[in-house]
Write a structure and sequence with these properties.
Chain lengths: 303, 147
């Protein structure tokens, strides 16, 4: 009897034992954080490389030389901050078991993320339109106004002969047009002069893309005035700028795209209490994407 | 297994939702406003007002702007991590994941300095001849005045 009682006591004691997880968080969240810590190192490497390249570079272009508009970057920062707020409000709605509200916020987040990517695409297009991108065998960006630059201009003038002839044939509407037409004539003359001096080559580069101007004010060159002319240009540090810009914003855009795909998959779901851990995890990922942009915006647009 | 759900009462402490008192829409909106203000502060460094402040020494103005923007970015990052990612309310496991990753990230950056940051020191004369050069140098070569 006593033994049985003892066994019973022991049994009930055993039942009282509670399972303690190693870490006080769900598995999914743990893995998301582990993933994010690898992501921290991934972007730290990219951003670190950018910083040492940028500050070790002998020359770096001003934003308007590479058609970078600071305000657009600022708007994108704002859009991404808003999307961070909507995803956190989505989580709050799910915790309060309001699936309708949560769905509204996830749709808003999806929309804001799409706006971000749309603006990014618009920015990329303005770079591509002006020939600012890495390509083989070499880009249209030259580091110095040397004989290689002159020969590239010559080749391009020959390729776009129809366009050049059309520009030279038309009567300029105003003084600016006349000025630019005159500049184009001088560029043709310098490019075709095998005896051109460094001074003249430098002058030619300035006609195509003026880089002497002070920050804040800039003159218009031939490439801006005549769309589709696309003459090779001299932008010191421009090639390295293009490489780092497209790598950093490209990897960031891929992360945004992945987030948007997940949001799109979440739209048909019932985002109630049962989904809170899932929403929290995708929220963590999305905040991280926002976090990366917080550093990319000043580094790429304002430095 | 340990697929303990949300709001799991067992253990009585430090469960995922034991921090139900945090957050609140008011706090999120306050963080949002702070983020907007800080972003505008960064953007202010490219304004004419900022340039006017450092009219006499634009190079110094740039350095101050860089330091200022990085400080602002770190502040913004901290706000996002602490409040939006709820790290402020997490148990101490957060240090295990974030501190080593951050230290590795910093060392990664530093490790790049000798080979990448100081790469121009080991350029051959031929390599240097084709390297990018600031506009002012090119103008010097061509004897052009630069403003």
């Amino acid at each position: 009897m006593a033994v049985a009682e003892h066994a019973h006591a022991e049994h009930s004691h055993h039942v009282k034992l509670v399972y303690q997880p190693a870490l006080p968080l769900p598995n999914g969240k743990l893995f998301m954080w582990l993933f994010l810590s690898t992501e921290i190192m991934f972007f730290a490497a990219l951003i670190g490389v950018y910083i040492v390249i940028r500050f070790g570079a002998p020359a770096w272009p001003l934003p308007h030389h590479v058609h970078l508009v600071e305000v657009i970057g600022f708007v994108n920062t704002f859009v991404l901050i808003c999307s961070s707020v909507t995803i956190v409000l989505c989580l709050e709605a799910a915790k309060a078991n309001k699936p309708g509200m949560a769905k509204l916020f996830i749709v808003l987040t999806l929309l804001l993320g799409s706006i971000f990517l749309g603006i990014k695409g618009f920015e990329y297009k303005s770079k591509f339109d002006h020939g600012i991108y890495p390509r083989q065998p070499r880009s249209a960006i030259h580091e110095r106004a040397n004989i290689y630059f002159a020969s590239a201009v010559r080749v391009r003038l020959r390729e776009g002969k129809d366009k050049v002839d059309a520009i030279l044939a038309e009567t300029p509407a105003d003084e600016e047009g006349q000025h630019q037409q005159e500049n184009l004539r001088r560029v043709i003359a310098i490019a075709n002069d095998p005896q051109a001096k460094p001074l003249q080559l430098h002058e030619m580069a300035q006609f195509i893309l003026p880089t002497h101007d002070l920050p804040g004010e800039h003159e218009i060159g031939l490439n801006d005035f005549y769309h589709g002319l696309n003459l090779p240009m001299v932008i010191p540090g421009g090639n390295m700028w293009a490489s780092t810009y497209f790598v950093l914003t490209g990897f960031h855009a891929i992360h945004v795209l992945v987030g948007l795909i997940v949001f799109a998959l979440m739209v048909p779901m019932t985002l109630g209490l049962r989904r809170t851990v899932f929403i929290e995890n995708i929220g963590l990922y999305w905040h991280f994407v926002d976090l990366v942009w917080i550093f990319l915006f000043p580094l790429l647009y304002l430095f | 297994m340990n697929s303990h759900g949300h709001g799991d009462p067992q253990g009585g402490h430090a469960t995922p939702t034991a921090h139900a008192d945090h957050g609140g829409i008011g706090k999120y909106l306050a963080v949002f406003v702070a983020l907007c203000v800080l972003s505008s502060a960064s953007f202010f460094t490219v304004s004419d007002t900022w340039r006017g402040l450092f009219k006499n020494d634009p190079a110094f103005g740039h350095h101050v702007a860089w330091a200022f923007m990085m400080a602002v970015s770190c502040g913004k990052a901290l706000l996002v991590v602490l409040f939006f990612m709820h790290v402020k309310y997490e148990a101490s496991w957060k240090y295990v994941l974030t501190i080593p990753a951050s230290i590795m990230a910093i060392f990664l950056g530093l490790a790049l300095v000798p080979d990448v940051g100081l790469r121009r020191r080991t350029y051959s004369p031929q390599r240097d001849f084709f390297a990018a050069q600031p506009i002012s140098h090119q103008a010097d070569e061509a004897h052009l005045p630069v403003d």
